[in-house]
Write a structure and sequence with these properties.
Oligomer: single chain
Shape: flat
Helix content: 55-70%
Number of helices: 10
Number of strands: 3
Radius of gyration: 20 Å
Strand order of the largest sheet: 1-3-2
Length: about 180
């Protein structure tokens, strides 16, 4: 499924490659860096950060702020990620991507909690999601998780996983052949 961000990412990558001076605009770099984070493509985000000219990163605090979020994601520091997201007053069009990124990180975090814990403290969920206690309790109800009577412990349930798609032996052989070919070249 191709999303609007996937299309925008392809356009921004093309803009970077076809930039007349070999250097894209700060807006292009900022949006592309934010989209890589949204896609959870931390390797490409890191490579992009390294190839952005230093005069652009030093003169554009928004790009530096986006990379601060990327660094927290790289280190799997969820609490720090939410702090970095809230620490900057994002401008359009990056603000839309950052809002979507924050929602996606929370969604992944709730799925991770559901798959990983049978019991977890409310305070831990607050820290892991960057939400207030009331917002976490509301999200727990939305996910159909039970909150113990003490109001301190949550019993999450695993998210519903879609059934595995059946892949034919021919498709599997084709994918394996492509992979081996890739490794050899």
């Amino acid at each position: 499924m191709i999303t609007n961000f996937d299309k925008l990412c392809a356009e921004l990558e093309k803009q970077e490659l076809e930039a007349p001076t070999g250097v894209a605009s700060p807006s292009t770099y900022g949006q592309l860096l934010a989209i890589y984070l949204y896609q959870n493509d931390l390797c490409n985000a890191k490579f992009l950060w390294k190839r952005i000219p230093q005069n652009i990163t030093s003169s554009n605090p928004e790009i530096t702020a986006i990379w601060a979020v990327g660094q927290k994601l790289w280190k799997k520091d969820l609490a720090g990620t939410y702090q970095a997201l809230a620490a900057y007053n994002w401008t359009e069009p990056v603000a839309n991507i950052i809002r979507a990124l924050e929602e996606k990180i929370r969604e992944r975090t709730f799925n991770l909690i559901g798959r990983s814990y049978s019991s977890i403290s409310l305070d831990t969920v607050v820290t892991m999601t960057g939400l207030s206690r009331d917002a976490v309790l509301h999200a727990c109800r939305d996910h159909k998780w039970t909150v113990n009577e003490d109001g301190v412990t949550i019993n999450p349930t695993p998210p519903v996983q879609p059934g595995p798609l059946h892949t034919s032996s021919e498709d599997q052989l084709f994918k394996l052949t492509e992979f081996v070919s890739f490794l050899e070249n």
